Amino acid sequence: MGFATDCIHAGQEPDPITGAVTVPIYQTSTYAQEGLGRHKGYEYARTHNLTRRSLERNLAALEGGTDAYCFASGLAATQAVLTFVGAGRRVVVSDNVYGGTHRLFTKILADYGVEFAFLDASDPEGFAGRAGRFDLLWIETPTNPLMKICDIAALAEVAHGQEALLVVDNTFMSPFFQRPLALGADVVVHSTTKFLNGHSDSVGGVAVVRDDRHGERLRFVQNAAGGILSPFDSWLVLRGTKTLHLRMPRHEENARVVAPFLSRHPKVGTVHWPGFPEHPNHEVHTRQATGFGAMISFDLGSVDAAGRFLEAVRLCTLGESLGGVETLVSHPATMTHAGYTQPERDALGISDGLVRISVGCEDADDLVSDLDQALAAI
Ligand SMILES: Cc1ncc(COP(=O)(O)O)c(C=O)c1O
Fold first, then answer.
1. Could you say which of 52, 98, 233, 370 is catalytic?
2. pTM for this one?
């Protein structure tokens, strides 16, 4: 089936009892059993829930995986995948990943004896030498917030060359633009909170696999650790993915107007967006993705200028998160990436003047007018 058809139909059949076209919200904690050991395959809702299962099948189809497992947030999905490695294992992470991922790795999982190394993964050849031995490689591409691009196929080779796993956080691109499993990744993770849901009204996460052994492990973690996605949130994301194929082109169409506007503006410094031909890894991104997405970051030179701009926007909303139909602006240094120390942010190039914009689906002219008037305020 084509991508749009899968968005709308994969994992979903009319309800067998009523014929309801939309998968119902199975809001139950348990299921009646017919006798000891005799039941319809449903025992307890932490383990089995048909709304969640429909979403998992839908997301597996969209990412081209064999199965998917949904969790209560993107970070809960991340934590579940990290149970693939235990004490004494080494995880290499592309630098400038989402601050919450960095915080989970360095402030919680490191205490369990997992070693983490954060490296620039946008240069795969140099990377293989620098990385040394590792058991799991975790990348974002584009990275958050500097939009660095990592070559998924090349890094899959590096990882598999030493029997390590490659995990790709595909939140920024969504499977509409990029399907990492087809490029060799072993697991794809999303914060479904973002583009997959698309309406800024649900927090969730998913891990999609292509190897049944990884699926078995994640199914076990769902049940044994319990950080599952609720039936209602599953239903919301399922509703969101129905329009993913309509929203993503619109997000990008707007980004194609906003990014050049920002880069031409005299008050704006460097603009980070993989759609610019001069982006250092534009060619790699073009090879592995079908679009450039709607995440842009840009430098306003100082925290004061960034603050004045962020307070001056009217149509855009100052807020954490991304990927909704409404345009959101944020300040990585004090918001999404506050978990990094100042020296860590300085070393990565996440300056105090950096602003991130998640371009929504409004009229592009209205967005440009709003950004223009806000830039006039600094
Ligand atoms: C790229 C990326 N991955 C993961 C997460 C974590 O997702 P959640 O907030 O759903 O836990 C975020 C959140 O902003 C993110 O931007």
1. 98
2. 0.98
**136-150, 275-289, 336-350: the lowest-pLDDT one:** 336-350
Residue 54, classed as helix, strand or coil, is helix
**What pLDDT, on a 0 to 100 scale, did the predictor assign at position 96?**
85
Question: SS3 for 1-17, per residue?
Answer: CCHHHHHHHCCCCCCCC
How much is the pLDDT for 298?
98
Domains of the chain: which residue ranges?
A: 3-241, 245-376
Per-residue exposure over 246-278, b if at least 16 CB sit within 10 Å of its own CB, e if not: ebbebbbebbbebbebbbebeebeebbbbbbee
| CATH superfamily name and code, 245-376 | Aspartate Aminotransferase, domain 1 (3.90.1150.10)
- 287 included as an active-site residue: no
* Residues 6 or more apart in contact with residue 73 via CB below 8 angstroms: 191, 193, 203, 204, 205, 227
**Would you identify the CATH topology of the domain 3-241?**
Aspartate Aminotransferase; domain 2 (3.40.640)
Residue owning the nearest CA to atom 2 of ligand 1: 98
Q: Is the C-beta atom of 73 inside 6 A of ligand 1?
A: yes
